[in-house]
Amino acid sequence: MHNPQPEGGGISRMAFNIGLLLEENNCNVFYISYNKIETVKSVKNQYYFPDTDPNSDKNYLFLKSFIREKQISTIINHISTNELYSGILLNYDYGDVKILSMIHNCVLNHIKHFAYQKEYSLKSSGNNFIFAILKSR
Question: How far apart are CA 62 and CA 109, in angstroms?
Fold first, then answer.
């Protein structure tokens, strides 16, 4: 559900390598992305949703038709922790199609590292004076 970038590493490389493994086992593999990134080279069997709104009815109808035409039995969602982009898979019915979700980090990562993310955000936006105020008594 995102541009697979095997040279980029991380979850993109994992998704691409799983695709290669499935192809080696005589499975048809297709990649669907929300928008084409000009700086990223498309891979074989790369398709794009027609609308930039991830959860539009237009995208749902496209995916439903794509599943039927390509006889898709399983979808691997590699941005599963992103509610915005996973909504199209969670909020619609695709019959017997299995949806497998890949999770790159701990599901609680956003909660566990919340303080560090806020600290970085404050420091990088030039608001690190707040930390001096917080240390005062």
Answer: 33
Distance CA 55, CA 87 (A): 6
Query: Cα–Cα distance between 90 and 80 in angstroms, integer?
Result: 10
Q: Can you give the three-state secondary structure of the chain, one letter per residue?
A: CCCCCHHHCHHHHHHHHHHHHHHHCCCCCCEEECCCCCCCCCCCCEEECCCCCCCCHHHHHHHHHHHHHHCCCEEEECCCCCHHHHHHHHCCCCCCCEEEECCCCCCCHHHHCHHHHHHHHHHHCCCCHHHHHHHCC
| pLDDT tens sequence across 66-86 | 999 999 999 988 777 677 888
Write down the pLDDT at residue 1.
46
Contact 75, 93 (CB under 8 A): no
- Taking the whole predicted model, whether its pTM rises above 0.85 is answered as no
Q: How far apart are CA 93 and CA 78, in angstroms?
A: 19
Q: Which of 5-9, 31-35, 92-96 has the lowest mean pLDDT?
A: 5-9
Joined together, the tokens standing for residue 23 give 């192809």
